Amino acid sequence: MEANTHLQSEPHGPPSGIMRWILTTNHKDIGTMYLIFSLIMFFVGGAMSMVIRAELFQPGLQIVEPEFFNQMTTLHGLIMVFGAIMPAGVGLANWMLPLMIGAPDMAMPRLNNWSFWLLPFAAIMLVSTLFMEGGGPNFGWTFYAPLSTTYAPPSTTYFIFAVHILGISSIMGAINIIATILNLRAPNLTMMKLPLFAWTWLITSYLLIAVMPVLAGAVTMMLFDIHFGTSFFNAAGGGDPVLFQHIFWFFGHPEVYIIILPAFGIVSSIIPTFSRKRLFGYSAMVWATASIAFLSLIVWAHHMFTVGMPLTGELFFMLATMLIAVPTGVKVFNWTATMFRGSISFETPMLFASAFLVLFTMAGFSGLMLSIAPANMQYHDTYFVVGHFHYVLVPGALFSVFAAVYYWLPKWTGYMYDEILGKVHFWLSFIGVNVTFFPMHFVGLAGMPRRIPDYALQFADFNAISSVGGFLFGVTQLLFVFIIIKCVKGGKKASAKYWDGAHGLEWSVPSPAPYHTFVRPPEIEEDKDYF
Amino acid sequence: MQRLSVCVFLMFASLWTCNGVSAFNMKKGVSDVSNSVYDLHMTMFFICICIGVIVYGFMFYAMIKHRKSKGAKASNFHENAFIEIVWTTIPFLILIAISIPATHTLIKIYNQDDSEIDIKITAYQWKWQYEYLGEGVSFFSNLQTPKEEIVGIRKKNPNYLLEVDNPLIIPVDKKVRFLVTSSDVIHSWFMPDFAIKRDAIPGFINEIWTKVKYIGTYRGQCAELCGKDHAYMPIVVEAKSQQEFDSWIKNKKIEAKKERELASKKWSKQELMTRGEATYKKICAACHQPNGKGSPPVFPALDGAAIVKDKDKIAHHIDIVTHGIKGTAMQAFIHQLSLVDIAAVITYERNAWGNKTGDVIYPQDINNYIKTGKYQPQNK
């Protein structure tokens, strides 16, 4: 691959100043902006979770009123899902997909610019609702009607508009990613040679295109119910509040996989690198990803076991949900088999990827328990669910983003990050996550409902522990910012292939990756194993 | 690896020994259904522990033994169709095994036949109404914990947030069917001891049943976010012997009869004000606040509001309280409150705080308004 470096020509550098960022069509610039945006939103949403944990530190009302507490839980969820995790995934896709498949850029660079620049405006609109008369959205991130229509604060209209814009941005991003992967692969880079990160993003993009319009439909119906006198979700007018939940979860459940599939891709890149061994069962991994995506479209009502569905409905959704354990198990087994009899070293990306493997598996166990409909009558809407999905999203999705950032940061900046600080960041985050979210399973089983600012005395001890863990985790993330800034400013020079066990085209370009890469497609030899 | 297995063991041991009565684990509960749900939960937990020990065993073995720093050399295997089939099939078989008892329990939960008592549960922001169908007995169940305990001025009692003024009373060993619905947003009637969680949805009536085995007091909470005071609408059920239940419901019927007779009684302004204040605090203050200032724009102020102060808007005032305002959080109280309570609360609102209008509205006025749609004051 060394022969390729002379192809990294620099026809022109980036324009300077702010206009570089506003007008840019370069996938690396746009990827960087996505990642910075996501980091900012991560801290906004994180600050809200700190308010939540502070209020829940003790029973009773101490810091905020219930009305404001509900706005915090709602916006924390919305911002973390739509503002932090999803843009982080798209940012990584922007940066790495063209490098991984030997493309000069994304297939539609101008569309790419637009899909990024919609985000800050949507985010500002969403957060600004907090300062409006009547407060921000206070009906939970699932915004069940009629609490979110008839009984909602006036700012809900802004929330709806923000969701529309975020959805448009996601759909455009997804179209771009599909077009890039299908059309811009280097010659001879066949589909079954793609890195798994490309595969998971390809499948995720199809999910996005399938379900984001459904979300847009849901919020549009809300808009009509609020302003134009329709009764889609208003029982008094002949509408159906349960219909809202079906529509919402038809989007909402695949959304979970939209968040976690790219994480699977990242981990599938990192574990082989640091195990110095090829990914075990590549084609099984691809098929497992596709089956998970398909199943995710037919299990939505497992979020609704208590709404009073008929018995057959409960049975179908219970059995279909249980099935997801099969392909997910295959993934976990394959990752484990990849590490088995490898030559493993634990640099920071591998630490985060291993924690992902261990803790995501735990989230899988609680997920399997939740799928059992009769038991779900007890688990549903308690902290057991909160514990479960935070294990999916924090040590699952978020840790994989951390892992990806440490893994590729030297490729972006040209400097190695501080390994010791990285490891400190990992261990504090690892302890923080478990101290925060593990006790939630217990209070949930003991019957503590979610989304309450105040609780009965028997839940007090575990909540205090959760809060302490939450503060530890929150403060630790400042270290992450420090590590990134330190790495951008300088450090040990990174070589083109700074991880000795890494494979793939992204390691054939120098670090930092030049502004334009693969202007001419790289040569892929027919019979050589790259991945 | 050792540390983990010790942790898992301790966790498991603690869960097993406390036998369902703990702050750690699901309650075993007091009905057949809740017992099967508990067993299902523990079976699932045990299966997860077993799978976990094996999977984590391999993971940690690799992480510890196959490290570069220990001189491990990487092997080259990366594919094996046989093992892929094995680890696809085994979980599949485990799932089939689990689905049998799960389906069995689910069918039991859905068997609504032969109920002996039917109770309609209607959720309101933020209280429950219990109606004994065919008995003419109906009442509201509100949070009883005083505000002082919530804001921390007074020490919290052991049943903090899990206590109500009027608990639901049911007899033991009878199949009690609950018909759950809502008058405003979605709530959820959650009683861990019965393994019941049913959403209360406006426009829908959901059925669920229980047969409680032991006399006792059981506590739960609303489980679906329903607005501001979601944390403050607990559920308390007292299961009594059949005898005690019978005499309780007999007294309730007599009380209900007396209450209906009150509507034709002659009321003084002072009596109406006292009763109105109590009703206001119980029903209205959650949104409009005890001081009548509300929390605009969703919950408007009543203190100084034109509808409450102007003489010629009395009819409008009565209309809002009885029929509510469509498209807002203001409910129709015509079926929730008695004529006396509606008259009393309107009288109270028109004379409390700065609204010293001197207007007195009588139960008969409300009755006339409901029938004719007009307000014609009785000159008493």
Task: Draw up the topology in text.
The complex is a heterodimer of chains A (531) and B (380).
Chain A (H helix, E strand, L loop, with lengths): L17 H6 L3 H29 L10 H36 L7 H20 L27 H28 L12 H32 L13 H35 L6 H15 L14 H13 L1 H15 L8 H24 L1 H7 L3 H31 L5 H27 L14 H30 L42
Helix pairs in contact in A: 2-3, 2-4, 2-15, 3-5, 3-7, 3-13, 4-5, 5-6, 6-7, 6-8, 7-8, 7-10, 7-11, 7-13, 8-10, 10-11, 11-13, 11-14, 13-14, 14-15
Chain B lengths: L1 H16 L14 H34 L15 H29 L7 E8 L2 E6 L4 E5 L5 H5 L16 E4 L4 E7 L4 E5 L4 E5 L5 E5 L5 E7 L11 E7 L1 H21 L6 H20 L17 H4 L4 H10 L15 H13 L11 H10 L8
Parallel strand pairs in B: 1-5, 4-10
Antiparallel strand pairs in B: 1-2, 2-3, 5-8, 6-7, 6-9, 9-10
Helix pairs in contact in B: 2-3, 6-9, 9-10
Give a structural overview.
The complex is a heterodimer of chains A (531) and B (380). Chain A has 531 residues and is mostly helical. Chain A has a single domain (2-508), classed as Up-down Bundle (Cytochrome C Oxidase, Chain A). Chain A has helices at 18-23, 27-55, 66-101, 109-128, 156-183, 196-227, 241-275, 282-296, 311-323, 325-339, 348-371, 373-379, 383-413, 419-445, 460-489. The radius of gyration of chain A is 23 Å and the shape is globular. Chain B is of the alpha+beta class and 380 residues long. Chain B contains ten helices and ten strands. Chain B has helices at 2-17, 32-65, 81-109, 147-151, 242-262, 269-288, 306-309, 314-323, 339-351, 363-372; strands at 117-124, 127-132, 137-141, 168-171, 176-182, 187-191, 196-200, 206-210, 216-222, 234-240. In chain B, α2 runs antiparallel to α3 (81-109), α6 packs across α9 (339-351) and α9 (339-351) packs across α10 (363-372). The longest helix of chain B is centred in the N-terminal third of the chain and has 34 residues, at 32-65.
